Every structure is written in C-alpha cells, then in structure tokens.
Structure to design on (267 residues):
C-alpha cells in the first residue's frame, strides 16, 4: 500500500550562486532511478542565507521566475515531486523564505503548494530581511500520502506543527541547521514525529557558511514511531528513504492518540 521513495539532497550550497546550485540539482535529478517519487532540497537551496537585504532583494524571484520554472521542468520530465525553499518576492513586494512542493501528477493551481516560513530565526537578520508567513504548513495529496512542508526553525514550535485530525502523513522540513545545534535538530524531528504519528524528513544543507558548518548526516528521516530511519545511499550525494503508508495507518488505528489531542487557536 502506497510505498514511496524519497531522495534527499544535502546540497553544499554555493553562496548566492543560483546557476551553479541549480546545475547541481539538475545533475542529481538526471541520475535518479525511475522509481524515485520525491526529490527534497534544503532551505534556500539556490542562494544560502543572505545577510544583506539589498543582495537578497537582487536574488529574489517570483514563483514564475527561473528557479521555479527549472524545477517544474525537472518535475515534469522526471515525473517526480520536487520540494525545498527559495528567496521569493511576493506579490506585495515583500521578501519571503518560501517553501514549495511541486506535484507532477496535478495540473492547474493545485500543481504547486507554497508555504512562507513563519518563525524567523531570532539570532539572525532573518526578520529584518523577510516577512513572516501567517498560514500553517499546507498539505497536498501525492501518490497515496498527505504531505506537508515547513522550514527549519518552525520545527521548534510544536503547536504550529500540530497534526490536527491526522491531516498529514509526512512532514518535509527544508533546513539550514548548523552542526552546533545538531542534537536539538534530531531530537526535535523525533519529538514531532512521535507526537504527530507521522514521518518527518529533515533535508539539511551541507558545507559551510558564515553561520557555521553543516554535516551531511543531519539530513535524516524519522518514522512515525520516532525511530531514526535506516537510509540507503547509492552515492555520496543522496540519501534515499523507502516508506509505506500502511505502517502509519496501522499505528494510528492501534494507538489513536489523536483522539485526545489538544486544540489551539492559531493565526
């Protein structure tokens, strides 16, 4: 029942070099086997985090810009979903750290869902550069799974991530999470997976920038029981996860903790 294969790419992001980063993604996409369903990319995968607002504005694109156009072409030609986040200029002119999930099996307005990072990191200039989103992580239906997306720091806030009425089966977290807080990252992924009875996939960048270093092994998956997944890797670029939806449904049936879940009023 609804087996799915996810390729997670811990890209070593080249700072502000959109062309080079997109080329790396294209090369990885071209190498994927035909049974791959999702290619998951890190937060701000085309640029890394930009500290200067003027530079961030220069690098920003609309949802119809070159980045999303290239990714839609990958999704269409490879028949895979593609997700991550990029610097987006919204219709109101503000800059957003915008996550996306491109669904190749759907057309029209539902083909891509978007999410603007809500919790802007307090120790950086993120709040000065970006406008926070005010909508909870959206959910899309893809090959038997209800899949939600969120961004990095949002993971720390359990109320925001609440899986009311089991609305999602998988949460994909695009991140630039440094090694210095690596224990917290993995612990939070485990906690969110357990409390929400859902798979959590954290796709983190690799390499270094002005904020720290990023290890490949922080890109990881956690199953609905809170177990760190035993991933397989075909090369030094990707982590692959094979997941089955029936395992989640079986757990929720046998241990229906969602029936006792608290309700909170969000924005």
């Amino acid at each position: 029942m609804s087996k799915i294969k996810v390729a997670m790419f811990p890209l070593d992001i080249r700072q502000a070099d959109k062309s080079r980063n997109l080329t790396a993604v294209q090369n990885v996409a071209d190498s994927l086997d035909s049974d791959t369903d999702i290619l998951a990319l890190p937060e701000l995968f085309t640029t890394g985090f930009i500290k200067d607002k003027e530079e961030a504005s220069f690098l920003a694109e609309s949802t119809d810009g070159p980045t999303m156009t290239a990714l839609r072409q990958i999704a269409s030609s490879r028949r895979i979903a593609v997700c991550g986040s990029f610097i987006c200029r919204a219709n109101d002119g503000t800059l957003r750290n915008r996550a996306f999930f491109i669904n190749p099996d759907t057309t029209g307005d539902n083909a891509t869902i978007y999410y603007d990072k809500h919790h802007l990191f307090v120790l950086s200039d993120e709040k000065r550069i970006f406008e926070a989103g005010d909508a909870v992580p959206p959910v899309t239906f893809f090959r038997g799974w209800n899949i939600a997306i969120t961004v990095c720091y949002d993971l720390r806030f359990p109320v925001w991530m609440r899986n009311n009425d089991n609305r999602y089966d998988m949460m994909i977290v695009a991140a630039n999470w440094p090694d210095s807080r690596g224990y917290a990252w993995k612990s939070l992924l485990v906690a969110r997976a357990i409390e929400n009875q859902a798979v959590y996939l954290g796709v983190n960048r690799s390499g270094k920038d002005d904020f720290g270093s990023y290890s490949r092994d922080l890109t990881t998956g956690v199953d609905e029981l809170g177990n760190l997944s035993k991933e397989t890797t075909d090369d030094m670029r990707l982590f692959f996860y094979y997941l089955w939806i029936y395992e989640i449904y079986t757990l929720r049936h046998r241990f229906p903790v969602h029936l006792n879940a608290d309700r909170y009023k969000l924005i």
Observations:
- The first strand starts at residue 3 and ends at 8.
- The chain has a mean pLDDT of 95.
- The chain has six helices and 13 strands.
